[in-house]
Amino acid sequence: MPELRQRWLPFSGLEFPVSARGPAYGERHALYQRYRHKLVINPDLTRALVSFQGNKSAPFYRWFKYKEAFSSEFITYILDHFQVHSGKKWSVLDPFAGVGTTLTSATKAGGQATGIERLPVGIAVMNARLKADLVSIVRFRQTLARLRNECIHNDRPQQYLFPHLKITQKAFSPETEKGMSVYHGFVETIDNPDVRFLFRFALLAVLEETSFTRKDGQYLRWDYRSGKSVESRFDKGAITEFWLAINRKLEMMLEDIEHRDGGRFSSNATIIEGSCLSELLRFSEESFDLVVTSPPYCNRYDYTRTYALELACLGYSEAQVKSLRQALLSATVENKSKRARLAKLYKSLDRESFYDQMEECFERQGALREVLSVLRNARDLGMLNNNNVPAMVEHYFFEMNLVVHELARILSPGGHIVMVNDNVQYFGEEVPVDLILSEFALHAGLKVDRIWVLPRGKGNSSQQMGVHGRNEIRKCVYVWSK
Ligand SMILES: C[S@@+](CC[C@H](N)C(=O)[O-])C[C@H]1O[C@@H](n2cnc3c(N)ncnc32)[C@H](O)[C@@H]1O
Fold first, then answer.
1. Residue 328: CB within 6 Å of ligand 1?
2. Residue 403: inside a domain, yes or no?
3. What is the DSSP string of 349-414?
4. Tell me, what's the pLDDT at 86?
5. 65-87 tens-digit pLDDT
6. 307 lines ligand 1 (CB under 6 A)
7. Which of 52, 64, 68 to mutate to test the pocket of ligand 1 (most atoms within 8 A of CB)?
8. Residue 407: inside a domain, yes or no?
9. Between vectors from CA 6 to CA 5 and to CA 11, what angle results, nearest 5°?
């Protein structure tokens, strides 16, 4: 795959170590010196490009606000950069597909796209995109008209009760719960399965705006009006009335469905519901020309809490949410080691030697050993605000090491892997996620072409800033090739 022009600047703004207490030598410093010339600031990579912001008003992407997504323009930028859409057929994979931004944009550009996603919320959004290609516009429009006629007085019989989880109790006003119940009853009367799916999906897509919650950075924040005892008096502002929200959503969906252009998504996208930690093993070598992805960051972010309303609405029980949390890539302090299970999986596939090589790469990664040792010492001295942070970091890298090795295996020669990820910091110590993962990539036989650094990094948390001073942490896009 050829590459386009360059207007990147040498990276010099953030010198290593950014640690307020770490020494200017050691494994991480040596690693940084090795990769210094690969780190370049790419002024094209604004934060809007690698975040959901750019999707807010784009057709289809605007159906569901998934703050963890990157923008469709980011994919277009990458496809242009590698000129993949010129000439022959090409295929792209996103092993952490989220709501399918990679798939939607790549299929639009003429590629074959495969996405793996474990969170049912992302799967529902991708399936809605699929249905959007297939659904009869006339039937959708008629059903919307019927909804307006039949539900206008909000007085249809209500049998449905929103299936709350413990942490979603009190998320809606009684009026909203009543509206949801009436709406749910209506959806059950829809005969056409595609229309029914999309109307059900519309409910999923208005939960946040009609609730007392907001997905804010790391948490699901609760408005004081919910009656939940919350520490700070958070006011999310106007809360959209249920019928207004659902009508607006369905109108928006209809508008996009009316303007769909040929149904490329449904014929060229493959959606796999599962964990990439096992699903990647199913692909044979050299299956994809390009991988564009953004894994969860190693930042304690818990998707199952942030998307608790949606999971409840999808019928997830407490036990199912718990097991879902464990199935996701380890990035929370509650995640337990998946190591024994993964070892067993490789053994059952007669791939023990591949597994052993990966394990050795993981065990020998000096900078990672250094980070883990600093964090464990801090934990033993009672200086971490959560004692499971070292284990979380360890699990994160163990699993990402496996992902990187599998991606290297299934990438075609000449192909590229593009990965968006943030570095993180604990106890004032930077964890150079970009460099450690690039070391794994090298071990897996890939070439580290460069690490694009976003012009603006990310500040450390206010809690950490108070103790360790202000550090800017690199936000990066890695470019590896085979
Ligand atoms: C940063 S988001 C990616 C968002 C995506 N780029 C988009 O535009 O929608 C990371 C995604 O990885 C998913 N994920 C976490 N663990 C996973 C696993 N083991 N297998 C597959 N997906 C996983 C999360 O549910 C989340 O949707």
1. yes
2. yes
3. TT-HHHHHHHHHHHHT-HHHHHHHHHHHHHHHTT-SSSTTHHHHHHHHHHHHHHHHHHHHHHEEEE
4. 64
5. 999 999 999 999 999 998 886 66
6. no
7. 68
8. yes
9. 165
